[in-house]
Amino acid sequence: MNQWSKPRGELPRVVTPNLLWTGGCLSIEYQGELAHGHFSTYLVLGSEKSMLVDTGHASHWKAAEKHVEEFLDGRPLDYVFPTHAEFPHGGLAAHWMKKYPNSICVGDVPEYPLYWPDLAPRIRQIAVGDEIELGDRKMVFVPAIWRDLKSLWAFDTVGRVLFVSDGFSYLHYHKAGQCDFMTSEHEPPDVKLIQFFNERALRWTRYTDTRETFADIDEMLKRLDPLLIAAAHGGVIDTPSMIPLLKSGMLMGQSGAEAKISKISPEKATAGVK
Amino acid sequence: MPQTVAERNPGAGASPMLPVSVTEICPGTIYAVGGSLPADERCRAWIPGDVRGFIPFQCYVLRDGGQFLMLDGGLPVHRNEIRAGVEALIGDTHERRFIMTRRELDTILNLPWIAHDFNFHTLYCGGDLSPIDFFEQMDDASFDEQVRTLVDTPFDFLKPGPLGKIGLLDLEMLRGALMVLPTFWFYEKATRTLFTSDCWGFVPKLLAPDSPVRTPPDAELSAKKIESFLDKKFDWLACIDNSALAADLKAVFVDRVVDRICPTTGCIIEGRAAVERLVEQTLEALSAMARRPRQSVLAGWDYHPPRT
């Protein structure tokens, strides 16, 4: 029996009283079916301060703004943390900073003052090893192992949630009513679909033996021992059995079998989904 | 007999009315618009830490025969410079298009006011929609949504290949050979100009008022300097078998004569010999990066959470 809230079928999901999972899915018609893909944003609520992890997709702004406001319940948003400067992760930083005029943007984003010069005094550069106190918990910034642009991952020391941005992402066809499922609440995704995602989203995986990165992943997971892994694309991971599956999803090119799954049918992919 | 670009636009560089934010690259047709910044911490997303001097940041305008094409939107910190430049160049052009070379913040954040204030009729981005590829469809759908939340101007995707004429200019769209996120390069055949988005944006200028057009000496285009740039901007090229990417890069230049490289960051690299050296040294840099053994990302990371 896990300690998390029950899914409602759509975001937001108040995973714990200290963790909001918001953002949303984009749905596209694919082979005659509507299929969804996640663009998640998380809010960590400490006893004193709060931190938004990733700024979300522009099309989810109005919904996420409302969800965050409700979850904060009158408290301010103190920190906005774009894991990296890609649009769905960091493009709405100014929106949040303007809505919460005392909030500070933190990240490995030295270029942000050039993007929002009027907000430059509220943008702070942080690096691996930095920590931010939220009262009863800290957010600790850790190396991003699986990534595209230069990124930071973060760890909530009390909730033991590891925020991994584009890492640990997985593509699985899901439909309306399944968007807030954690990995324990849906069938395991097809490994070929994870490969398919990674070889496109993380281009380097096509040209190297990704097994060389697994020791770092193992070491980080061993050291942090997270209860949850919160990725930007894919459901929140609450099942250890996902880790070997996700590693298998990094095996393509020189690492193993070529991913040839572009024609997999939604019916096959969604077969057995609760 | 049809005119060449040079014949139609005599008097190279003779544009006394242009504001300082505009640099004429090819007489009467191709311009860089933007500003420069000291090579300080704010530029570290694009350039290595040991680069000194000033870094130009620019978007480009291609203009001929009543057509006006803007490649990227420049940095918001240069909003005033870009506005002045576009105002000076747009004139009475009747066909105004805007193309994003990448789907990143530094190419797009100025788009809303540019599209609105200068009445662009269509915006484009490179895309390669495949009806059987869920990821590409999702990626393009995501970007389409992003743009539509920013601007009302009609938006569409372009596929790599010939894009047609802008007056006498003849533009081709290419997949970027070196990139992180989807990136498209553009080759203009009449002037032999290659626009490379964020690739090769590492050449500084000495002083802020200096021209952003340079023919750097060999020492500035060494494999070491290029490797340092690639490590900053495209660090995933290290410790992998990047030979396929090197082949893609070579292919771009085998099929095209290139007299200048126009990146969005750093100086414009002028002259065929400089371009040839740049490519040759880049291939050497790629090879050196490929030979490096993979290092642990966790090296130096000593955090251990408190025991609960």
What is the overall number of helices of chain A? 8
Structural class of chain A: alpha/beta
Give the averaged pLDDT of chain A, no decimals.
Answer: 88
Major sheet summary line of chain B: 7 strands, mixed
String of helices and strands of chain A: EEEEHEHHEHEEEEEHHEHH
Beta-strand percent range of chain B:
25-35%
**Uncertain parts of chain A:** 257-274
Strand order of the largest sheet of chain A: 1-2-3-4-5-6-7
Q: What fraction of the residues of chain A are assigned to beta strands by DSSP?
A: 15-25%
Q: Span between N and C termini of chain A?
A: 18 Å
Helix content percent band of chain B: 25-40%
Globally, the shape of chain B reads globular
Counting DSSP H or I runs of 4 or more residues, the number of helices of chain B is: 8
Radius of gyration based on Cα positions of chain B: 20 Å
Main beta sheet strand tally, sense and closure of chain A: 7 strands, mixed
The quaternary structure here is heterodimer
> What is the number of E strands of chain A?
12
pLDDT below 50 for ≥5 consecutive residues: which ranges of chain B? 10-14
**Main β-sheet, spatial strand arrangement of chain B:** 1-2-3-4-5-6-7
The count of DSSP E runs of length 2 or more, i.e. the number of strands of chain B, is 14
Structure overview:
The complex is a heterodimer of chains A (274) and B (308). With 274 residues, chain A is of the alpha/beta class. Helix content of chain A is 22%, strand content 24%. Chain A has 8 helices and 12 strands. Chain A has a 7-stranded mixed sheet. A 5-stranded mixed sheet of chain A has the order 8-9-10-11-12, with no helix packed on it. The model of chain A is unreliable at 257-274 (pLDDT under 50). Chain B is of the alpha/beta class and 308 residues long. Chain B is built from 8 helices and 14 strands. In chain B, the strands form 2 sheets. Chain B has a 7-stranded mixed sheet, covered by helices on one side. In chain B, strands 8-9-10-11-13-14-12 form a 7-stranded mixed sheet. In chain B, a hairpin with a 4-residue loop joins strand 13 (260-263) and strand 14 (268-270). In chain B, helix 6 packs across helix 8 (272-291). Chain B is globular. In chain B, 48% of the residues are buried. Residues 10-14 of chain B have low confidence and may be disordered. Classes of the chains: A alpha/beta (274), B alpha/beta (308). The interface between A and B is large, with 61 and 56 residues.
